[in-house]
């Protein structure tokens, strides 16, 4: 078997809705939707090993801490484990006042009865019932016509009311999903939902949630948005209905579909953290929320410590989050390539604390979600001077002059080309030491004494040369000129730069000297010392030795 030359013989596009007066393309998002996590139900039902009660409880507490107020915690009629989990939450009084648990059931009386039993004693709860309504499901799974599918939904709604009446101590809310909504004829989906509403009689205080799933994503996100806008226009009791989105990601556009669905008038989003869920996953609530945040909208969810949340999710789902996953992946705030690093480094340098975020290539300030800046720049053979410079600045306080950045990045490039590996900051500093700070041959500086008179500096320098101690004498307008004069070599100083590393009594001076010796090409040397003059003299010898041994 292989791919078909003519896939139309096997696959076809789903019909699209004719909605020429659609309004959603001209809208923008201005506020967060109602969020509902389906991690403990849709997420859980798609795992290789469903979560243990302990893991579910840990996940539940994490969802509460994030600030999610509606949490689909189980499919209680599916298993004793799920049933017991709901009981544990209720009997253990683990549900915060401002949080509502939600549970799912098929539209079957035995399952609905068991579902209500699991919720006995809850202060409030959402019971969510579904049946698939699309032509394929009617034909293949249920062997029903349209009337049959509608009757199943209506009967389910009647059962919700019947069983809710048996547990009057609970404040009940209801949710109905025409499963496979996005593959259902839009007018039929509206018809089924209107019939359900006639039974459930929504009110302003007890709105009914109509959840419109892209159970399998079958079209481009604009088609889903048209379906949502059409639904919102035609559904009865619109003011007492919460339109909820539940997108999956089969075509890779689950987030786009939910975002466009919100533009099209939806009020609520169901999904899972980091996009876990059946097949390619449910819509990722974290990405949706942080997409709002990076447009300046408070998502009403807290991801200030995104890595701790990821840790819990990975542990509970036993699935890793991809290193390229938006906002949270290990590599998503990291630049390896030279031009990105250069722009990021300049961006950080120019970013004012209270100004709008404007660091190139970083759509979010990693610090806002608890990430350090450590991993923002990493160096390999794709990197340039910006990355090397950034790491030395950040990790070691070394701030090389521009021309030395160019020279030193070539040294690092030679290393990355040789090994093909990343070079971490520690290794970069080690190379700086080997190449510059310990360039002690043939002149190994031992110490010096200075004397100033009449605007001139006299210097006496002790150096090891050929393993013998030599004392050199020189005079000049400053220490460096005096040292150069002591050498009796053809040396021109081309560039000099110095700065402090750290502050207070622990501060050190870093000095950079570029010199040209004889006909050799100009090279840099670096010296670091507690004394600025000593740092400069060390830098001069570092440059001289590098030139003589080049
Ligand atoms: C898109 C979604 O994610 S929907 C949620 C899916 N989640 C799950 O299924 C997880 C939990 N499910 C389960 O544990 C089981 O499927 C149960 C307990 C619900 C039902 O188990 P069983 O009674 O053994 O039925 P089974 O799993 O084979 O389900 C298929 C039957 O349910 C019927 N069915 C499927 N969906 C529905 C529905 N929403 N309402 C009513 N009946 C339905 C099918 O037509 C089929 O009936 P048939 O046996 O008469 O042909
Ligand atoms: C039950 C429904 C909401 C569902 O999970 C889906 O359609 O994906």
TrEMBL record:
Residues 33-307 form the Pyruvate carboxyltransferase domain. Residues 439-550 are annotated as: Regulatory domain. It comes from Thiopseudomonas acetoxidans. InterPro entries: 2-isopropylmalate_synth_dimer, AIPM/Hcit_synth_CS, Aldolase_TIM, IPM_Synthase, LeuA-like_post-cat, LeuA_allosteric_dom_sf, LeuA_N_DRE-TIM, PYR_CT. The gene is leuA. Belongs to the alpha-IPM synthase/homocitrate synthase family. LeuA type 2 subfamily. It catalyses: 3-methyl-2-oxobutanoate + acetyl-CoA + H2O = (2S)-2-isopropylmalate + CoA + H(+). Pathway: Amino-acid biosynthesis; L-leucine biosynthesis; L-leucine from 3-methyl-2-oxobutanoate: step 1/4. It is found in: Cytoplasm. GO terms for molecular function: 2-isopropylmalate synthase activity. This is 2-isopropylmalate synthase. Homodimer.
């Amino acid at each position: 078997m292989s791919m078909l030359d003519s896939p139309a013989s096997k696959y076809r596009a789903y019909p699209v809705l004719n909605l020429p007066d659609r309004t959603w393309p001209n809208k923008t998002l201005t506020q967060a939707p109602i969020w509902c996590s389906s991690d403990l139900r849709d997420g859980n039902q798609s795992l290789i090993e469903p979560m243990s009660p302990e893991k579910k409880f840990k996940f539940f507490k994490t969802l509460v801490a994030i600030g999610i107020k509606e949490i689909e915690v189980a499919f209680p009629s599916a298993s004793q484990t799920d049933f017991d989990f709901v009981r544990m939450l209720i009997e253990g009084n683990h549900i915060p006042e401002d949080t509502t648990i939600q549970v799912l059931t098929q539209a079957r009386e035995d399952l609905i009865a068991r579902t209500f039993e699991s919720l006995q004693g809850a202060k409030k709860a959402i019971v969510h019932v579904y049946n698939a309504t699309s032509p394929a499901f009617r034909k293949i799974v249920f062997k029903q016509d349209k009337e049959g599918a509608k009757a199943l939904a209506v009967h389910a709604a009647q059962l919700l009311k019947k069983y809710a009446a048996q547990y009057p101590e609970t404040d009940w809310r209801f949710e109905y999903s025409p499963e496979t909504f996005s593959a259902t004829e839009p007018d039929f989906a509206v018809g089924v939902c209107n019939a359900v509403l006639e039974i459930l009689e929504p009110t302003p205080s007890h709105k009914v949630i109509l959840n419109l799933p892209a159970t399998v994503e079958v079209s481009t996100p604009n088609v889903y948005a048209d379906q949502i806008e059409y639904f919102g226009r035609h559904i009865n009791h619109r003011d007492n209905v919460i339109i909820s989105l539940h997108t999956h990601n089969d075509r890779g556009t689950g987030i786009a579909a939910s975002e466009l669905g919100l533009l099209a008038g939806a009020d609520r989003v169901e999904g899972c953290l980091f996009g876990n869920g059946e097949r390619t996953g449910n819509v990722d609530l974290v990405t949706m929320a942080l997409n709002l945040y990076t447009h300046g909208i408070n998502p009403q969810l807290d991801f200030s410590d995104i890595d701790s949340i990821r840790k819990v999710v990975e542990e509970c789902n036993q699935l890793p989050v991809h290193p390229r996953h938006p906002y949270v992946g290990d590599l998503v705030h990291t630049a390896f390539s030279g031009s990105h690093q250069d722009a990021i480094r300049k961006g950080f340098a120019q970013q004012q604390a209270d100004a709008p975020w404007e660091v190139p290539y970083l759509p979010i300030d990693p610090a806002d979600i608890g990430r350090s800046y450590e991993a923002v720049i990493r160096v390999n053979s794709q990197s340039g001077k910006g990355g090397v410079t950034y790491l030395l600045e950040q990790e070691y306080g070394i701030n090389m002059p521009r021309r030395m950045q160019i020279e030193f990045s070539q040294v690092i490039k030679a290393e990355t080309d040789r090994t093909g590996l990343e070079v971490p900051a520690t290794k970069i500093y080690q190379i700086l030491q080997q190449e510059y700070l310990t360039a002690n041959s043939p002149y190994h500086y031992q110490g010096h004494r200075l004397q100033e008179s009449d605007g001139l500096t006299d210097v006496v320098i002790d150096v090891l040369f050929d393993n013998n101690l030599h004392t050199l004498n020189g005079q000049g307008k400053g220490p460096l000129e005096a040292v150069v004069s002591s050498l009796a070599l053809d040396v021109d100083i081309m560039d000099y730069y110095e700065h402090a590393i750290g502050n207070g009594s622990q501060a050190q001076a870093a000095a950079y000297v570029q010199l040209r010796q004889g006909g050799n090409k100009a090279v840099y040397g670096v010296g670091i010392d507690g004394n600025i003059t000593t740092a400069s003299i060390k830098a001069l010898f570092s440059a001289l030795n590098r030139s003589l041994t080049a």
